[in-house]
Specification:
Elements (H helix, E strand, L loop, with lengths): L5 H18 L8 H12 L5 H19 L5 H15 L3 E2 L12 H7 L1 E2 L1 H14 L5 E5 L2 E8 L2 E6 L5 E3 L1 H12 L15 H18 L3 H14 L4 H13 L3 H14 L6 H18 L1
Parallel strand pairs: 1-2
Antiparallel strand pairs: 3-4, 4-5, 5-6
Helix pairs in contact: 1-2, 2-8, 3-4, 3-6, 8-9, 9-10, 10-11, 11-12
């Protein structure tokens, strides 16, 4: 278990509070860039959030100068791609895809390496600053961005340096990831709200930290998922299981009991009930 000095703990608590305050906002008011940096600030106590927001401002200003007055989609996309992927050198980290640093906006901007969703957030936020509407598209296994103009959607892949994708390209992506089990359709290509984007980023971090058995960090990701999506039964269950892993047995018991009351006949009910019986014994012994 990690131990932190008091100033670091204060910074971590501030980051948690900042994220919590944003998580309750309506989707349209939820700031994607600042919320993503609040996720990073818990990992990097004392993070200069405003400094990284200014870096996004600067990237947008450079793109604005390059693009000029035109808002022709092809010209704007070319300008964004030039600034972000040629001049700035942002790229997808295919060699170490599951490095958690790929999910933290400060690290992506500093190391110039990211995964599809973090690079897409940067793309969206730079585009937003110049008044060019871009939405996030959560294909299963690969995040993209999309610009809608005159009834036509333009799909862009920030992980591959802003490549424009056709529907056929998207199907090839899905086939590589899912072996032909998923067919691309209009619903899969609909833009996601900011809440859903942040939730997906947190699910990535949860999976990475669970795989690494970094239970406290996985628990932090689950806490934030539940801030954004209160009452999701599977996350209440997983929070309980992570409380068990971190020795917080009373909290684990409470979470697992809530999970069973909110889920009608879950398939994992026998396993959860076994854990509840064990935890009741532990908690009673502690008292």
């Amino acid at each position: 278990m990690e131990f932190f000095e008091a100033p670091v703990i204060i910074d971590i608590l501030k980051a948690q509070q900042a994220f919590g305050a944003m998580a309750v906002l309506d989707d349209g008011a939820l700031p994607l860039d600042r919320a993503a940096l609040a996720i990073a600030a818990e990992e990097y106590p004392g993070l200069d959030t405003d400094g990284y927001l200014r870096r996004l401002d600067v990237l947008a200003a450079r793109a604005e100068v390059l693009i000029g007055d035109s808002r022709e989609p092809a010209r704007v996309i070319d300008g964004l791609n030039e600034v972000l992927f040629v001049q700035e050198g942002l790229s997808g980290n295919g060699e170490d895809y599951y490095d958690p640093r790929n999910s933290f906006l400060n690290e992506v901007l500093d190391r110039r390496l990211g995964i599809p969703i973090s690079l897409s957030i940067i793309y969206m936020e730079v585009a937003r600053r110049i008044g060019f509407p871009i939405g996030g598209v959560g294909l299963p296994g690969h995040f993209l961005v999309k610009h809608k103009a005159a009834g036509r959607g333009i799909l862009i892949d920030p992980f591959h340096r802003g490549r424009i994708l056709t529907l056929s390209d998207c199907q090839e992506l899905l086939d590589r990831i899912h072996d032909g089990a998923i067919t691309v359709d209009a619903a899969l290509l609909e833009p996601m709200g900011n809440r859903a984007i942040l939730t997906r980023m947190l699910y990535n971090l949860k999976a990475i930290y669970t795989q690494r058995e970094e239970h406290l960090k996985a628990l932090s990701a689950v806490d934030k998922i539940l801030m954004l999506n209160p009452g999701v039964p599977s996350e209440i269950r997983d929070r309980g299981l992570l409380y068990m892993q971190t020795g917080l047995f009373a909290r684990a018991l409470a979470s697992l009991e809530v999970y069973l009351t909110r889920t009608a006949a879950p398939e994992d009910s026998p396993h959860v009930r076994d854990n509840i019986r064990m935890l009741r014994g532990v908690v009673c012994a502690e008292n």
